[in-house]
Amino acid sequence: MAMTNCHRDVLRKVRVYMMENLEVDTIIQNLVGELLLTAADEETLSAERTARARTKALLDILPRKGDVGYTKLLIVLREQQTFVYQKLVETEQEIARSVQQSRPMGLRFVTTQRASLLFQQPSGIYSQPVLTDSEPSGTAKCTRITSSTDTGQVILRHMKPRSPLSLVSTQALSTLATHLGSEWEQLAIHMGFPTSKLYHWKQENSTVWGQVFAMLESWKNRNGNNATIAQLLAVLMTFKPPLSQSVYRHLYFE
Asked: Residue 106's pLDDT is what?
């Protein structure tokens, strides 16, 4: 999946800054370790003779990795180059303020497809819904949708996006557990848990929800201060077969 426009905008705005400041070889190796960059990507980057050229090539590759690529870049930068990470965060906030100032407050209306796109953004940028292109500002009808099966428009209340680097709350994990089904066992393996742990959770919990929640709590406890929303999203978004966005979209908002 291609990277959403909001994240492309951030990378475009910081492009020159990153070409001048990024310790690109360290970042590349970390992204290889995160299984984001392939051997072919690494070969393409190593063919560039200067650090500036390698940074430029990396910024050209990242949008093709989708929002998972942007999230993993943030995680690596936070650990390796704090000041560059801070530059991206400040740029996100600057873009978000600009967008919010240009839109009226209150309820916003989006098509179902547009709403789906909004929920794809790990950093919360541009996460406030907007009027559909077919409805000029101030002319949309205030029709409340009462069923998830309704087509056309859905109404999203004004919600505050969570910071992707905040720790995952117990409530968020509880909600996530209600959205996961039989795939949770393969997800546990994907998270690095041995099959003996799955047996233990099944023995200790009689319901699927309890088993899933125990697994998620174990992931949070194992990761400690690194059990952030961004880390959890990186795990969920790289799981195969892909999970529906409806499983984890609540993680973006408070």
From this structure: 43
Q: Which residue has the tokens 């390698």?
A: 54
Burial class (CB in 10 A: 0-12, 13-18, 19+), 13: middle
- Cβ pair 84, 18 in contact under 8 A: yes
Nearest in space to 145 (alpha carbons), one of 109, 169, 176, 181: 109
Q: What is the pLDDT of residues 151-189, one digit of tens each?
A: 333 333 444 566 777 888 888 898 899 889 889 999 999
Give Rg (Cα) of the chain.
20
Q: Is 190 exposed, middle or buried (0-12, 13-18, 19+ CB in 10 A)?
A: middle
φ/ψ of residue 108, rounded to 5: -120, 155
Burial string for 66-91 (b: 16+ CB within 10 Å, else e) reads: bbbbbbbbbbbbbeebeebbebbbeb
Q: Are 248 and 179 in contact (CB under 8 A)?
A: yes
List, in sequence order, every residue forming a beta bridge with 79; answer none if it has no partner. none
Beta bridge partners of 156: 108
Residue 248 structure tokens:
């984890």
Q: What are phi and psi of 169, to 5 degrees?
A: -85, 160
User: Can you give the pTM of this predicted structure?
Assistant: 0.49
